[in-house]
Structure formats: C-alpha cells, structure tokens
Amino acid sequence: MASDSESETDFTDVFRELSQRRKASTGMRAIRKAQKQAASIPDSRAIFQPGIRVTKRVTLALAASGHQGLAEKIAKCDRKKGICGSIYCQKCREGLSTSLLKRTKKNLLHKFQDNEEGLFTELRHVSGLVDITALQPSDIRFAIKQAREVFERAAHRRPWFKAEGAFELELVDFKHMDRMSPLYSPEKKTSLEDLLSGTLTRPMYGDDEMVVLVHWHALMVGLDDTTGLTREGGRQSTRGSAFSVLRKHYHRHRQLYVQPLRRPKVSSTIAKDISKICSYPFKNAYRLKYTFEGSDYQNGEYVDFKTLGEFIHVYRQIGRHGNKGLQISYGSRPS
Ligand SMILES: [Zn+2]
C-alpha cells in the first residue's frame, strides 16, 4: 500500500486532452472526458503533480474516488440555479465567507459601531482543536456534536456571550509527521501527538491511513464577562465566564487559541482583518499543512487522488444543506 501511494502517475495525456477539449467544446464535455480518463487510471492513489489548476485537481480527485456526481455539481454551480455547497467550489467558498462575515457584522460587531476600542478589548479570534478522527462521516459528526455541547454549555444563561464561526476539517498524514520540524511548526506536531494519546480507546490508525483533524475558528465577544452572574436567585453564582467553560474542555490534548485583533496602523485594515478571519474556516486544501498559521500549504505534500476525492465528498456530507453542519452561531440577534 505505502509503495503504491508513493508512485506518481503521469497525467500529461489527460491534461492535454482536457485542454484540447476545452478549446474545441464546452467546459462540461471536457470535464466528462477527463472524468472518464481519470477513472480508467488503475492507480487511483496516485499523487498529484504540481502545477495543475485547482478545478482540475478537484474534478480528477472526485472521479478517482467515484464521486462524479459531486464533480458535476461543482462544475455546473453558478449559485443561481443550485448551490453545490462544496468548500472546493470557488463560488460557494466565497459565499460561505461572505455569509459568515454578514453574521459576524450583524451579531457581533454592531455593538462596536461607535467604539472601535471595544473591538480590541472584547473581540477575540478563537480556535479550538476538537479531535482526530477517521475519514468517516459518523466519526466526524460525533466529534462536532461533542464540540457543540461545549459551546451550548458556554452560551447557557450567558446572553452576552456570542460566537460566529465554522468547523474546519483538515487531512493529516502521519507518514509526513517528520516534516513537522521546528522549521515548520513544532506546536502542531506536539498537539497532534497529544490528541492521539488522548484517544487511546480507539483503534490505532494505520501508517498509510490519512486521518481528519477536526477544529474550529470563531470570532467571539463576552468571553471573559461574568457580569449578571454575581447574584442569581438571591445567591452568589459560582458559574464563571464562557471562557472558563471552554477552558475546562479544551486543555491538555485539546488546545484553545485565543487571540485579540491585532492593532493595525490604519483603521481601514480592521475590516480587512475581520473579513480575512471569516474566510479562515473555508480552505480548499489539496496539500498537507504543517503549521496552524493562516492558509500556508506551500510546503506540504500533495494529497493523493483518491483520498482527496473522498475527503471533498465527506466534507460536503458533513456540511449538509447550507453548510449548517459546519456552522457555529451562538447568541445571534433575531433578524
Ligand atoms: Zn458551488
């Protein structure tokens, strides 16, 4: 198995055919042809060659994993006739970022309209590592469900606590763990090892098995706030802040990163920073990533055909209608 996945198949003919077809006919016909050819390639675990356009990678990956239906939905998606909803569709990915930004403005930022300083003292960009799971919808859903229960506990009777964000799934390949040297990110390697050590009850993952890192990114307000809790039913409350609830769950192998907004030199970049944070959870990764920072996939190995296609398909299944399955939204204002 391991040696198969190392081998590289030459797709030159597929892409030559694809580009000729594209010139000669409509995009759809070219895609169908490429799908057929990709499906006929015997080694479907082949590694992608560099320098291939993302749309082609996605189409070929889905074809190799037997999900042609989703490939066609993505190719046809124009966000009018029907939204494919895949994070691997550029239009849908942009749409998801935009709608998260809209929710953030409506539910979180409105209170800072005349109080820019409040953005720095109260608004937090928070990320949490939930778990490592198999590339199986049921396992991923279970991890997300557990994380939601923690958010619900944090939001319970704390109307000042608000969060807008999304769950993100990321492929991890233990074969390449050595790449996580101090040159990249030692923190990530330690975190992944800690996560794995915290999941001893599970079957061990095979050396050639890719697993999924379930985590989330959200903007939050009222994280440290305990006002309104001081007296409850005539008694002093012992409940702490929403942060203390999160902290209780996210410790040891589950990590929590809390960052204030960085103070920019010009205030116009605050909006830019917030909109960038709102695009964080929607990455169309096709390479492995060794750091927690941003979307820097430039150094990572390419994910093999079949695994990537399966991942794109599972991602869409978890998202469900309108990607509600990935959405994080607590304390929203009624529309
Ligand atoms: Zn789409």
Largest sheet: 5 strands, antiparallel
Q: How much β-strand is present in the residues?
A: 5-15%
**What would you report as the Rg, rounded to the nearest angstrom?**
22 Å
Count the E strands: 7
The number of distinct helices, counting runs of at least 4 residues, comes to 12
The spatial strand order of the largest sheet comes to: 6-1-3-2-7
Quote the average pLDDT. Answer: 77
Give the cofactors and ligands. zinc ion
Poorly predicted runs of 5 or more residues: 1-15, 21-26, 41-45
Query: What is the total number of structural domains?
Result: 2
Please give the share of residues in helix. 40-55%
**Class derived from helix and strand content:** alpha+beta
